[in-house]
Design goal:
Family: Belongs to the tRNA pseudouridine synthase TruA family.
Shape: globular
Keywords: Isomerase, tRNA processing
InterPro entries: PsdUridine_synth_cat_dom_sf, PsdUridine_synth_TruA, PsdUridine_synth_TruA_a/b_dom, PsdUridine_synth_TruA_C, TruA/RsuA/RluB/E/F_N
Radius of gyration: 19 Å
Protein name: tRNA pseudouridine synthase A
Number of helices: 5
Strand content: 25-35%
Organism: Chryseobacterium lathyri
Structural class: alpha+beta
Helix content: 10-25%
Length: about 250
């Protein structure tokens, strides 16, 4: 593919992650990236590869995520989303497609990413696939928010990183971390310049241990400073996690 004839496009889309082993292509596993590339390649009649803003874990959802792809042909930015939505399964939805500069990158040019995690404090048959059902033991949201303030004291989140990954650095700049309660549902909103694999779920699992009284909020400092994944709590279930925003300066 010639550099001078290559056009780069961004895709804004969303998906329900229940049926997928995350976004990124994996051998012998169905992924969102595989479905997206298959649809694009079929419609545009050329082999299309995408680069996503991030790679969500198995079962994790995305309300707003971006990917870019390169092509040698101009695409119809109005009609292509409609064609893709007709081709893709119902749990993947294309919002818009737009042209960007040839070197603009969906992953590396993202200024921030924001996730939300949902916990149901009451047995709720309608949120079985979208929230962690944690109704057998109460959670102290005030203690969990005390712990949130501690997150801003650090930038090395090795203790919340999945082991044996290809991360070149475990440094992340935290912008927001807050728990809110609406009725019987807890929502954790966390925003940072980047996230490590499994990081949000590991933080939520540790926060739940704090909220249930197993450990104290101040114990979070020891966990982070230990730089050991085994020091933190068990990862929260993937189905309660949503990527809700990725920010760029277009």
């Amino acid at each position: 593919m010639s550099y001078y004839t290559t056009l780069r496009y961004f895709i804004e889309f969303s998906y329900n992650g229940k049926n997928y082993f995350g976004y990124q292509i994996q051998p012998d596993a169905i992924t969102v990236q595989e479905e997206l590339e298959k649809a694009l390649s079929t419609i545009l009649r050329e082999e299309i590869k995408t680069t996503g803003a991030g790679r969500t874990d198995t079962g994790v959802h995305a309300k707003k995520i971006f990917a870019h792809f390169d092509t040698e042909q101009p695409v119809d930015e109005i009609n292509l989303p409609y064609k893709l939505n007709s081709f893709l399964p119902p749990d993947i939805s294309i919002k818009r497609i737009f042209k960007v500069k040839g070197d603009f990158h969906a992953r590396f040019d993202a200024a921030y990413r924001t996730y939300e995690y949902y916990i149901s404090l009451a047995k709720n048959p309608f949120t079985l696939e979208s929230a962690w059902q944690h109704w057998k033991r109460p959670l102290d949201i005030h203690k969990m928010n005390e712990a949130c303030k501690i997150l801003f004291e650090y930038e090395d989140f090795t203790s919340f990183a999945k082991l044996k990954t290809d991360n070149k650095t475990n440094i992340c700049k935290m912008y927001k971390a807050e728990w809110e309660q609406e009725g019987t549902e807890l929502k954790f909103t966390v925003s940072a310049n980047r996230f490590l694999r499994n990081m949000v779920r590991a933080i939520v699992g540790t926060m739940v241990e704090i909220g249930s009284g197993k450990i104290k909020p101040e114990d979070l400092r020891t966990i982070i400073e230990d730089k050991n994944r085994n020091a933190a709590g068990t990862s929260a279930p993937g189905h309660g996690l949503f990527l809700v925003d990725v920010g760029y300066e277009f």
